[in-house]
Write a sequence for this structure.
């Protein structure tokens, strides 16, 4: 069964450093998302992406964040200058054209900012 | 604003007994409701959705959910729980102002004992 994959599974970085979290969505999916979950808190929407542009973003997704689909398979989330409060589990998700509401999630990347 | 609430942090059930995980929602307009399950070190897995139609929705792994408009509830059920159903369950609602943004509940840990 096709699945969303994410790398790395765990990323440790120092405050102020840039990080790139990588995702490979399911191959025929057209809609892509990033969510995050701070330890002990709810899963929160960050951004959705369709047709090579951001469709929607939350207030969390400020100018320190960016997303990109650099080729036909990868979908990345970049944090330019990490803060301690960016420590969280980051989930990538994708959905298909004919069922956009069924989002399929990757296993997540645990980001630890020290 | 749309939201869901999961009133129970944890549900304990013996194997073979019925399992219910509660969810209530608050939306303006018609709700799009979802259940996801998360196993340790795995991403969120889609279980089922309600968009329109029958109030009883059947999903993966023998789960079903009942949409109740008068009680604004969308409880997840399984007639006979398995030990392998032990996981974290999330209820979610799609923002009516959005096509892709999901709002998640806090999650309910299900523990099924042999």
């Amino acid at each position: 069964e096709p699945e969303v994959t994410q790398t790395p599974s765990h990323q440790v970085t120092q405050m102020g450093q840039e990080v790139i979290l990588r995702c490979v969505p399911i191959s025929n999916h057209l809609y892509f998302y990033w969510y995050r979950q701070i330890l002990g808190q709810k899963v929160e929407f960050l951004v959705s992406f369709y047709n090579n542009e951001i469709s929607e973003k939350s207030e969390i997704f400020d100018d320190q964040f960016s997303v990109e689909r650099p080729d036909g398979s990868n979908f990345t989330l970049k944090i330019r200058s990490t803060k301690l409060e960016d420590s969280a589990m980051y989930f990538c998700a994708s959905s298909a054209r004919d069922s956009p509401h069924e989002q399929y999630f990757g296993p997540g990347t645990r980001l630890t900012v020290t | 604003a749309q939201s869901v609430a999961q009133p129970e942090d944890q549900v304990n059930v013996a194997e073979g007994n019925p399992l219910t995980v509660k969810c209530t929602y608050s939306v303006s307009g018609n709700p799009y409701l979802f259940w996801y399950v998360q196993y340790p070190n795995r991403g969120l897995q889609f279980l089922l959705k309600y968009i329109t139609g029958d109030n009883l929705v059947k999903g993966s792994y023998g789960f079903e959910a009942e949409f109740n408009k008068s009680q604004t509830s969308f409880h997840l059920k399984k007639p006979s729980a398995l030990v392998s159903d032990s996981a974290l369950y999330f209820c979610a609602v799609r923002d009516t102002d959005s096509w892709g943004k999901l709002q998640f509940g806090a999650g309910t840990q299900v523990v099924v004992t042999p």
User: Anything to note?
Assistant: Chain B has no helices and twelve strands. The interface with chain A takes residues 32, 34, 36, 41-46, 49, 51, 90, 92, 94, 98-107 of chain B (CB under 8 Å).
